[in-house]
Amino acid sequence: MSMLHTVNKSPFERNTLESCISLAVPGSAILLIEDGVIGAMANTKHSEMVKAAMANVKIYVLGPDLKARGLNEGNVVDGISVVGYGEFVDLTTEHSAVQSWL
Amino acid sequence: MEDGDQVIKKFMYMNRKAPYGTIYAWESLEVVLIAAAFDQDISLVFADDGVYQLMKDQNTEEVGMKNFSKTYSALGDYDIKKIYIEQESLEERGLSLEDLQGLKYEDEDDDWAEKDSIILVSRAELAKVIDEQDVVFSF
Fold first, then answer.
1. Nearest-by-CA chain B residue for A7
2. What value does the mean pLDDT of chain B take?
3. Closest Cα in chain B to A84
4. What was the pLDDT predicted at A4?
5. According to the model, what pLDDT value does residue B107 have?
6. Is this complex's ipTM strictly greater than 0.85?
7. What are the domain boundaries of chain A?
8. Which CATH number fits domain A3-101: 3.40.1260.10, 3.40.630.10, 3.10.450.50, 1.10.760.10?
9. Mutation for B interface: A6, A69, A73, A77, most B CBs within 10 A
């Protein structure tokens, strides 16, 4: 079973997402939460990095955190799955461990 | 600048963080509303991730936090008329002014005509505005 990584910081403010992407082994999953959801948006300075990462890892974004910030679920990078709190719980049980990046 | 016996200073509030993930955005708004009572020359800046504070259609129902985005529309009533938004910050995030809420004030010198408070500036223009301030508060 692979690891679930959670990232809660904006890629514009910290390099957490970049580090996570470079250290997550192929087959793992990354869930973007809190200010981390900014990393899921298309057409930003960081979208290409996220697109490239999806060749190796599955990326999810927490819908409630997008909504809170007025970010449109339809405007996330293609291939990123928008999930709710229930699916967040499912993801934690489906993976071997959860690594919370700060 | 003097207004009667009172010295008016130029105060700038610099907002550079996204809302909700940290308390900075909300704290800044609270401080601005308090400071507005002291009749100073106030400017607000939204740059870097701070531009996300003004996104339209914020809905915090599911995250269980207070949606304070509607409070920004009250700034005009507190005589806050200069709200600078940095163009480059919007561009790097694939955003435009259309994605942000409009902010207005009523001009008492022009028969209370409703005017835009938002001033879109380049990074170079913003640098000059910052340089003119007496005090800059960072959030």
1. B21
2. 95
3. B62
4. 98
5. 93
6. yes
7. 3-101
8. 3.40.1260.10
9. A69
